[in-house]
Design a protein that fits this description.
By secondary structure, this protein is of the alpha/beta class. Helix content is 39%, strand content 19%. The chain folds into two domains: 3-155, NAD(P)-binding Rossmann-like Domain (Rossmann fold), CATH 3.40.50; 159-324, L-2-Hydroxyisocaproate Dehydrogenase, Chain A, domain 2. The protein contains eight helices and 18 strands. A six-stranded parallel beta sheet has the order 5-4-3-6-7-8, with helices on both faces. It has a three-stranded antiparallel beta sheet with strand order 9-12-13. It starts with a strand and ends with a helix. Homotetramer.
């Protein structure tokens, strides 16, 4: 960050500002996670429900002494997000038990269409991260509505799905989730797919990992079961508690850190693809470099024919939904 001179000859680094659209379960949890991790010096929440957003900001502010120093604002006026470095969009229709992410598209796109142009006005230099489901279709629509360059607007994509995959693989193999390296790509939804061929535990290819008695730990049956569990994880959480919020709050915070700290971290976010293995004009998750300017180079991970076919099928599913809503 640039250094600014202040009156009296003192100097300080420019503070960072993190904006959140939507003070529901995901938005409030995201603010909490960001404060706990000390992501930004200023956290601002915007929501059309004035009483709700003011209460969330006040509740968070009451715990400031227990986290890295920050200031929290909440308002039903979008000006609260002015000059944000990063804005995360969490507002949208609530997913109901048994409802697919793609079913949410119409109402959520309407909310995004009404709010996003104003966000661009008040924070013209911000990087925008879409979290609201169905995130791939919403991200594509947001690019059309906002006119922002593709590097400055992208979706949280399958960062959370990849975390779910790594958790399940860690449980199955008895290692720490941090030692599992595996990506879920494609739609953040029912057509997503794990990249088994490039996954590893430590430096050992996942498909060669063995149990203590020498057996292959992840045969086809185990992989199919885990892949299904990843897809169905959100539905089970929603059925039990009404919403997913903790894991996506942590996942989105990790993305924000990569932007604000210019980490150049590789994360499977949803971004506009152009000739990625021949796939273009659709927002899908593939591993990409995340830095201060947003999303950078998309990494062409080696894939099997089956994996590439699955990615293309996922692209068609998302593209078809986008077309139904005029995008």
């Amino acid at each position: 960050m640039s250094v600014e001179a202040l009156a009296g000859g003192t100097r300080r680094r420019r503070t960072t500002k993190f904006g959140i659209v939507g003070a529901g379960a995901v938005g409030a949890t995201l603010a909490y996670a960001a404060l706990m991790r000390g992501v930004a010096q200023n956290v601002a929440l915007f929501d059309v429900n004035a009483a709700k957003v003011h209460a969330e900001a006040l509740d968070l502010s009451h715990g400031i002494q227990f986290v890295p120093m920050a200031h929290v604002d909440g308002s039903d006026d979008v000006e609260v997000l002015a000059d944000s470095d990063v804005i995360v969009f969490t507002a949208g229709a609530k997913q109901k038990p048994g409802q697919s992410r793609l079913d949410l598209a119409e109402s959520t796109i309407g909310i995004m269409r009404a709010i996003l142009p104003r966000l661009v006005e008040v924070a013209p230099d911000a990087v925008h991260v879409m979290v609201t489901n169905p995130v791939d279709v919403v991200t594509y629509a947001a690019l059309q509505v906002s006119g922002l360059p593709p590097e400055r607007l992208f979706g949280s994509g399958t960062v959370l799905d990849s975390s779910r995959l790594r958790f399940l693989l860690a449980e199955h193999t008895g290692v720490a989730a941090q030692s599992v390296h595996a990506y879920v790509i494609g739609e953040h939804g029912d057509s997503e797919l794990p990249l088994w061929s490039s996954a590893s535990i430590g430096s050992v290819p996942l498909l060669q990992w063995r149990t203590p008695d020498g057996r292959i730990a992840l045969d086809e049956e185990a992989r199919d079961r885990i892949a299904t569990d990843v897809v169905q994880s959100a539905y089970r959480v929603i059925e039990g508690k009404g919403a997913t919020n903790y894991a996506i709050g942590l996942a989105a915070t990790r993305i924000i850190e990569a932007v604000l700290y210019d980490e150049r971290r590789i994360l499977p976010v949803s971004s506009l693809l152009e000739d990625y293995y021949g796939i273009s004009d659709v927002c899908l998750s593939v591993p990409a470099i995340i830095h201060a300017g947003g999303v950078g180079e998309r990494i062409e991970v080696p894939m099997t024919d089956a994996e590439l076919s699955g990615l293309r099928a996922s692209a068609e599913a998302v593209r078809g939904t986008a077309r139904r809503f005029g995008f």
